[in-house]
Amino acid sequence: MSNAVIIGKGPAGISAALYLIRAGIPTTVIGRDDGALGKVKKIENYYGFEQPVSGEDLLCTGIRQAERLGVELVTDEVLGITYDGSLNIQTKKGEYKAGSVVLATGSSRTSPKIPGLKELEGHGVSYCAVCDAFFYRGKDVAVLGGGDYAVHEAMELLPTSRSVTLLTNGGEPQTEIPEPLKICRNEIASLEGDRSLQRVVFRDGTELQAAGLFVALGVAGSTALARKVGAATENSRIVVDENMATTVPGLFAAGDCTGGMLQIAKAVYEGAQAGTQAAKYLRKNGAPAK
Question: Which pTM value belongs to this model?
Answer without folding.
Answer: 0.80
